[in-house]
Amino acid sequence: METFSVNKTPTINEMLVLTDFSKEAANAAAYATALAHQLNTRRLILYHSYESIAIPPTAFAPYTGGFAESHKLSLQKITELKDELKDWLPEKAEIDIRCDERNLVNAVISIAGEEHIDLVVMGISGKSGFERTLMGSNTINMAHDTPAPLLIVPPGASFQPIKTVVFACDLKRVTESTPVHAMKNFIAALGARLIILNVDHDGAHFNPDTIKEMKYLHQLWDEQQPEYHYIDHEDMAKGIMEFAGQERAELVITVPKQYGFFESIFHRSMTKKLAYHTHLPLLLFKEDV
């Protein structure tokens, strides 16, 4: 079986920060600026899409209206945001701005490829039309389609140096689906303690392949000397967030393979059932296929 390791100095050089000019987006941008110091990021790109949004109503994304915004106004607002952030950047880092009327997901995919983006950062609020779009299919599409990892910053998050990371994983196709190189690079750039967590309930997902998948998991990660935890909880998402809180982790990483997992974390957060964990950012890596 192939093994993976980080053989060069890890770098997170290019960061793309999305904004809709809400206070939640501003908080995410401030978080990204602080994180840039820990990651030694060389450049931040601020991006705003002012496309007209028309979303079919669903229980999770009820927004059905639309709005129009001028390029001039968008450019003015994003320039003001740049001016607010530039003094807080690492000493040699740069900050660029972009705004246009492209579809948000398509624009992020394009920018990520053209600019070799290492990390995309966005916030959520539960209030704006942008966020309702984000909470719907756009978020999962972003995580699945964008070549860069996607960092979701909740409105209650204030940056703390990331010392402990919880990687919440399942035990399905571990070798095939885990983007090991990208994850190891990011964790090494942070210099953080790594905890690998699997949550199950009454062995519901235990099958003859489970032991084999556990072996693969260790082969992939043992070189990083992580802690491994296998816990029982009837609610996977709640179990992950409670565990991360107990370990005083500053970040949760996962590779979302289905919509239900993501929704179960953030839907509960927005309804305050997990309000005490809404300060904890979630980093989504695209599944290897």
TrEMBL record:
Similarity field: Belongs to the universal stress protein A family.
Domain UspA: start-end pairs: 15-154
PANTHER family: STRESS RESPONSE PROTEIN NHAX (PTHR46268), UNIVERSAL STRESS PROTEIN UP12 (PTHR46268:SF6)
InterPro entries: Universal_stress_UspA, UspA
Protein name: Universal stress protein
A Pfam family that the UniProt record links to this protein: Usp
